[in-house]
# Entry
Amino acid sequence: MWERILVIVNKEVNQVLRHPRMRTMLFVPPLIQLIVFGYAVNLDADNIRFAWMDQSHTPASRELLAQFQGSRRFLLAALPQNETEIQNLLDKGDVQAAIRVLPGFGSDILLGRNTAAQVVIDGTNSNSASLISSYASSIMAHYAQTVANKQQGPRAMAQAESGTLNLRTTQVDARPRVWFNPNLISRNYFVPGVVANIIMIVTVMMTAMAVVREKEIGTMEQLMVTPIRPIELMIGKMLPFAVVGLMDMGIVTAGALLIFHVPFRGSFGLLIASVILFLLTSLGAGLFISTISQTQQQAIMSAFLFATPTFMLSGFAFPIRNMPVAIQYVTYLNPLRYFLEIVRGIFLKGVGVSVLWPQLVILAAYGTVIMGLSALSFRKKLD
Amino acid sequence: MNARRTRAVFQKEFRHVLRDARSLIMALVLPMFLMLLFGYALNLDVDRIPTLVYDQDQSAASRELVQQFRGSRFFEMEGLVDNYAAIERGFDRSKILMGLAIPRDYSRRVAAGEKADVQILLDGSDSNTASIALGYANLVVLDYSQKLASSGRNRTAGMRLSNPVEQQVRVLYNTTLESKNYVVPGLIAVILMIIAALLTSLTIAREWEMGTMEQLMSTPVRPAEIVLGKMLAFFVVGAIDTVLSVLTGIFVFNIPFRGNVWFLIVTSCVFLSGALFWGILLSAVAKSQLLAFQMGILSSFLPSFMLSGFIYAIENMPGVIQGITRFVPTRYFVTILKGIFLKGVGLEVLWSELLLLAAFSTVVFLLATRKLKQKLA
# Structure
C-alpha cells in the first residue's frame, strides 16, 4: 500500500513542481503576506501630524505646544492663521488633528481663571482618531495638573488663615503594565496569525486543484485502471501539500523570529502538532472542493469563496469581540478561529496544553469529521 | 477607431454576459455578499473591555475608583478577584483584556493627600485594542484624580476651584467615531476593484482557449475596438455593482453621504473603467483562464486590501511601502470615496486623485491594446 502511495506522491510532486508558476504560487504568497503584515499593517498612531493655531502667543501656550511636541507622538505640520485654513488642512487630509489656543489663554492662566483649548480631530479613520483623542487628552490633562499645582498652591496658601497649610495634593496615578506585548507592537499580533492564514490558503487552494485537474484533462480514467485504491490516491494527493504546509509554517516562523523578532514563548512541538491537526481540516476542505467541482475554474472560485469568509471571521485582522453577536456565534463554526487562538497563545502567551486543550480538541474533531466526509464523497465519486 | 465596430464587439460581448446566467448572478451577488460580510465583520470599535478587579484595599475610596470604571461604557466588570493569579489565568485563557489592581495602602494615601498608584494590567497581544483600552483607562484615572485633587483643595482652602485648562475635543466628519463609517466607503472601492478585475480577466483568455480569437482576427475589428467593446459590456455589470454597493452602504450601514452625487458618478466611472481595463490587460497577457484568474486575484485583492489605506493607514507604513502604495489605483479611489461620503468635499480637493485615476485608466487601456496587437501579430 505505501509503495503505491509513494508513487502517487512522486507523480504529484513532479507535476506540481514542474510548472514554475506553481512553484512560485507555493512560496511567494507566504513571503508577500509576511512582509506586508510585518511592515505595512500597523494600527498604531505614531507620527500624528497636527496643526497648531496659537491665538494667545504667551509662554503658557508655548509651554502647551512643547508638551505636544515632546510627547514624540505628535508632529507639528502646519501653523494655520484662521478657521478656514484649519478646515482646508483637515479636508485635504494634510493634518490629522488641529489644536487651537484661544486668545486670552495665557492671561487666564496667569489670573488663575479657567480656560480652554480646542482639539479638532479628523474622525475619518475612527481607529486613529480615538487614539489621537486619548493621547491629546492625556497630554492636556497632565498640563492642566501642572498648571493647577502652580496656580492654586500659592492662592490656597494666601487664603489659608494660618499660613501653614498642608500643600500636598491628592493624586492618583495609573501605572500600566502590558503583558505579552509590552511595547504594543502591531506586528507581534499580526505576524503569528500569518502562519495560520498561509497554511489555510496554500493547502486549500492546492488540494482544490489536485483532483479536478485529473478530471479535466482526462487522466482520472487512467488512474482508475491502475491497481491504486481510492484511499491511496487520496493520501498520495494530500501528503505533498501537507509537507508544503509544514514548510510554509517553517518559512513564516523563521521570518517572524529572525526578521521581525516576534517573541516565541511556547513549545515548538505543540505548534507542529496543532499545525498537523489543522492540516486535516484544510486538506479535507480542499479535497472536498476538488471532488464536487467539474473544472479548475469552478474549483478555484469555490476555494476563494470558502477562504474569504474563513479569513474574515477568524479574528485574524479584526477582533471577534467587536463583531455583532450573531456573527460572533457564526465564528464558533470557523476552524481557523481555534487555530489562530492556539498559534497566538503559543507565540505570545507561551501557554501550553493545559490552557489550549479545548481549542486542540475542537480542531481534532473538525479534522476528523471534515477529512472523513471528504474521503467518503471522494470514494463515491470514483466508484 | 470606429464606433460602429466597437458597438458590434460590445453587443457580442454583452450577449455572452447575459447568456452565462450563473456567472452573471455571481457577478451581481458576490459584491453584496462581500459588502455585508466585510461591513459587519470589520469593526475596530473598542468598548466593553472585559476587566477583572483586584481590590487589595477594600475601602470606600477604592470602591469609588472602581465605580468610575463601572460607569464608563468602555469597561465591563467581569468580577472581583483576590489574587494576581486569577488575572493571569484570565489573560491566558483570553477571558479578560484588562486587570485593575488597587494597592493595600490606597485609601490611606488618598486620605493623607499623598500620591497613590493603581495598577492597570493589560493583555497586549492585540496591540490595537490594548492601546485604545489603555488610553481610556488612563483618562478615567486622570479624570478621577483631578476630581479628588480639586475637592481636596476646595476643602483645605475653602474655595471653589476646578480644572484650570479644559480640553474641548471635537471630532470632525465621523463624529461618533464608528469604524463602519471609516470602513464601508473604502470597502466599496476594494470590492469594485476585485470584481472588475475578475470579471474581465477571463474574457480574452477565454477567446484564446476556445479558439474564437482566430475568428475575431479575421474580422476588420481592431485591437483597440476589441478592448473598448469588451470593457463597455462589463462596464454595465460593474455599474450595477457600484450602485448596489453604494446603496447598501447608505441604507444598510447608514453611512453619511455628504458629497455630490454627480462627482461620485464621474469618479466611479473613471475608476471602474480602469479596473476593467486592468483585467483585460491580464487576460491578454495570460492566455489561460486559470492563470488570468490567479493573477487577477493576486493583483487586485492583496494590494487593494492591504495597501490602499482602506483600513491600514498609509502614513504608518515605512517609506518604501508608502512609495509602493502610490502605484495602487484603489488608494486614490479610497481617498475619493472617503472624501465624498464623510467629508463632503469635491473636485476642488480631490482633483489630483481623479487625475491620477484617469491617467491609470488611459495607460492601462493603451497597454492592453498594445499587448493584444503583439499577440495578434
